[in-house]
# Entry
Amino acid sequence: MDDIGRYIEENRAHWDELAEHHPDTDSYDVEAFLEGDSTLRDLEVEELDASGERMLHLQCHFGLDTLSWVRDHDVAHATGVDFSPTAIDTARELRDQVGLSESEVRFLESDIYELDARLGEPFDIVFTSYGTIYWLPDLTEWARQIDAHLVPGGTFYMADGHPMVGVFHHESTADDLRVTYPYFNTEPITVDQDGSYAGWDFGLEHTRSHGFAHPIGEIITAIVDVGLELVFLHEHPWSFFQQFDAMERDENDRWYLPGLTHDLPFTFSMMARKPA
Ligand SMILES: C[S@@+](CC[C@H](N)C(=O)[O-])C[C@H]1O[C@@H](n2cnc3c(N)ncnc32)[C@H](O)[C@@H]1O
# Structure
């Protein structure tokens, strides 16, 4: 197995264990979802009109957003893909619990780099959000998979953490922003930790994971190089999670770093279209 294969296998083992624990965390709040709350943020709902469309959701984790698109936002069909078998099992159980059918929502266990062999028909929309491309070593192949699964005229949409603020240590404050991680994609960022953004001390066996820094230029270039046309790139002054210990959350679940003299781009959203 080459290095990339090893990184993906270690990440899969790590994520598969996280998928066992995440449904029990406050951060995911499965109970509120089962009671009818959509897990999508205002940002993607306002920027992406997905009503009546067929959607492919990449790196869907255990399916809350995939199910929310169909149950709460009129998406006609969604296929959620993730390489964690535990995440996919839980996603299917939740689909049954909320009473959606397999023709409305399908979940597929697959490495996104192996999707070609797994999915036939193209989609109106390819969607991915919040904590996805950091786990991918190769954005050229990622973009090729997106293009391959879109119908002509179809839409790609993503929202995620802005790579610019990904360089700072989580103990950074407005007065002390500590550059700790690379901005440019050089070596994988290997971390050994028993937890995630959603909680700590799960008792994980597979604590090691590998992330990959992707500068904003690399992300856009990967998308336009496969022939998709950029519709917008928006940058937002809030984070979707508590990226720094000093952050404070507002009533819309957006996290801000208090005391900054000027805003920083914590999140970006991007839309691109496949030519008709
Ligand atoms: C942060 S989570 C997804 C974020 C999602 N917005 C959520 O919070 O539910 C990242 C997901 O990417 C998946 N993943 C990582 N690398 C992958 C790959 N190569 N192929 C498919 N899924 C992958 C993990 O299993 C995990 O479920």
DSSP finds seven helices and 13 strands in the chain. The first helix runs from residue 3 to 21. The pocket of S-adenosylmethionine is lined by residues 8, 11, 15, 59, 61, 65, 82-84, 87, 111-113, 129-132, 135-136 (CB under 6 Å).
